[in-house]
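Deliverable D5.2: sample structural annotation.
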Amino acid sequence: MPSRRAVLCLDSLLVAGDEEDAPGDLARIEVPFAGALTETGDVFEPYRLIDGDGQMVVPVAEFLRSLQASGRSEATQRSYGMDLLRWFRFAWAIECPWDQATRAEARDFCRWLQLAGKPERDHWRTGRPAEPGPGPAPGTVNAITGKASPGRGLAVSTVAHCETVCRSFYDHRLEAGTGPLANPFALARTGGRAHADHNPLEPFHRERAGLFRPRQPQRVPRSIPDRMFDELFAGLASHRDRALVAFWVSTAARASELLGVTCGSLDPGSQLVTVIRKGSRAMQPLPASPDAFVWLRLCQEETRGQVPSGGDDPVWWTLRRPFRPLSYHAARAMFGRANAALGANWSLHDLRHILSALFPCSDSRRRRASGPAACAVRLPSPRCRLSPNHVGRSASSAARPTATRMPPNTASAGRSHTAAYRMARDPLMPLRCSGSWATRTCPPRRST
């Protein structure tokens, strides 16, 4: 069966290397699904890029080996390989060898990424074109969350990442002495180091960005409101799901980092959970909420004797037999089902912004409020970002000296906290509360 093709009309001309050569017409480009990025299962070469004839692309293989030598994870190698697969498919479609690409091909490739849209594949089971799903139309804004669903085209961040990967690939080949004489994905500056002749009285210009790199809009992170979080948490179907969400909120860890936790990484006595950070691959203990450990204990009692519980065994398992370690896609599907019951489209990443929304302050102040358990390491919450509600407050308090008084150990008298508030605040300010997780309140502060 012939493969479907992503077709885009580009009314542009190739710039010939020699002025005497006639420019080629790029009025119509058909980019087929040629080649693939295959997973080998080899530790030393986890991914391999092959062309349409099934042959390995040697320059890409050498580039991925250099990434592995510099300590990049397998996920990073896969991400870089997928971006290079887009570029090589485009180069094969216009019949341009990768080592003869010029700035014109790089320009048209970036245009193709932004205008062609996502390629449509045949259904993996039926082999026929996939029909529209029951979900909302692409680009529709959700009435509850205010977030738009993924559009028909590639995201701006995806295009920017692909441009950066291609520029890094050609820089690597230039250092090796192969490829074109100049990097087709050039930087915006003409040459030399960035800001070489900068005037101190003038602002800095964007000289480190790529020439064809699209500008990404500055978005304010969205955190889940307390009322919506209570409804979302109540819609979770199992103790495992409640424990996962409670840990995600209270630790502000990435979803993949928490899913990789082993039984030996939990310390309920100190209320710490040790995760492996995504970038540095360093092991870091994170303070977690007491409610999260309670839900985890209930989950472990349900599966006692049915799943391994050794120090090196994973903590999170599937609910259906045969029991398997819980993957990221399964956790995202679980969270998606809870969203579907509310008609929302929150993501797992939105759970990380709850802590930064409750504490819109500097990292040093957040570390002081985190107690001795987290003072030794940097608190893993997202970088403090200013929302429109905090801009005026931060501007007015910029001239005031930083307060050195530690926050009180308890909240105000009689204040009832939502589940999201307590899960994010408990590891930072221990609350001595009584009652159930949904109705407990804090006792009044004793006078000294």
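Annotation notes: Strands lie at 5-8, 29-32, 36-39, 47-50, 266-267, 272-276, 283-287. The CA atoms of residues 333 and 339 lie 10 Å apart.
The annotation will be released with the project's public dataset once the embargo ends.
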